[in-house]
Amino acid sequence: MLPSSLSTPDDLAKLVSDIKTWATEFGFADARIVDPDLGQHKDEFNNWLDKGYHAGMDYLANHGDMRFYPEQLHPGTRRVISLRMHYLPQSVETVKRLQTKDKAYIARYALGRDYHKLIRKRLTQLAKKIQEHVGDHGYRAFVDSAPVLERQIAEQAGMGWIGKNTLLLTPKAGSWFLLGEIFTNLPLPVDKPTASRHCGSCDACLTQCPTDAFVEPWVLDAGKCISYLTIEHKGPIPEALRSKMGNRIFGCDDCQLVCPWTKFAKHTEEEDFQPRHNLDSADLIDLFLWDEETFLKNTEGSPIRRTGYENWQRNIAVALGNAPTTEKTIKALQQALEHSTPLVQEHIQWALTQHQSQ
């Protein structure tokens, strides 16, 4: 039963207006309301799984149909509040850093504090703000941590459209933002869905992907994606892909960087998204010399922790193999051979071979 303060359509419309105002106060760039219809994505998602395009991310095949039916994730769900938050600091270079081969390139969302913690906190604050005004509304907050089709939800909420690179795009901010959701039992008025996708004939994200990870528009083979290879993948990186990875050691932004909508990107002023430990401009060798204790200390509260120290070393060894040949680079690789794990040693040997062939 709804509280008396929400007894009319006008009351609910006023609440939606307030929610969007509060969302801005909590640092979100946009908030939209949707009654998602996600069953239409079931066959497409399952076909993607059947073809093995999820690579080693077996967890994506778990949870049955839960991701298509929000009420199974949060009983009583009637609406989803979809929100986005900008994460790219204005001071951070992108293309220039990719072109400086002795510097490390880390996906720009991962330079600061773990976004899961920041956005989840703000979502909870917003949900509690709603609760202060209407009472217990039955809610659950999500930030990329459950079987939620967040981009499809955001598209249906009218926040933007899913681009050929599988990212959500908006005409006002490109794709340099992160998504979060509040599942609520309130019957809020919904926003209009995105009428159409505005990629047109552009295929820059498809043709300029370093590892040709896109099978076709809107279809990503994660097994070839640098983000997957440097973060989720365990074991050796396929040798055929190593030279294509350049200096990207954690994640990849290329399909965003080449997207024409990126020119409309908005920057963040969130302190938690500002670079830590000079990760936006660090030398590959300096990062390669971190021991595990230093890695754990410098990545505390960071999404980089997800890859683990061994894979961090593996990734940097590949990047050093793609770096300019210098005595310092070769020496760093040779010195690391003795105390590295067999996995890292394999990639160091590959890197040394690259320099010997030049």
TrEMBL record:
SUPFAM superfamilies: 4Fe-4S ferredoxins
Annotated residues for binding of [4Fe-4S] cluster 2: C209, C225, C252, C255
Pathway membership, UniProt: tRNA modification; tRNA-queuosine biosynthesis
InterPro entries (alphabetical): 4Fe4S_Fe-S-bd (IPR017896), 4Fe4S_Fe_S_CS (IPR017900), QueG (IPR004453), QueG_DUF1730 (IPR013542)
Residues reported in the UniProt entry to bind tRNA: K234
Gene3D superfamilies cross-referenced by the UniProt entry: 3.30.70.20
Keyword Iron: yes
Top-level taxonomic group: Bacteria
Gene Ontology biological-process entries: tRNA queuosine(34) biosynthetic process
EC number(s) from the headed UniProt entry: 1.17.99.6
Chain ranges of the 4Fe-4S ferredoxin-type domain: 186-219
Active-site residues, Swiss-Prot/TrEMBL: D144 (proton donor)
Reaction catalysed by this enzyme: epoxyqueuosine(34) in tRNA + AH2 = queuosine(34) in tRNA + A + H2O
A GO molecular-function annotation: 4 iron, 4 sulfur cluster binding
Quaternary assembly: Monomer.
Function: Catalyzes the conversion of epoxyqueuosine (oQ) to queuosine (Q), which is a hypermodified base found in the wobble positions of tRNA(Asp), tRNA(Asn), tRNA(His) and tRNA(Tyr).
Protein name: Epoxyqueuosine reductase
Protein species of origin: Marinomonas aquiplantarum
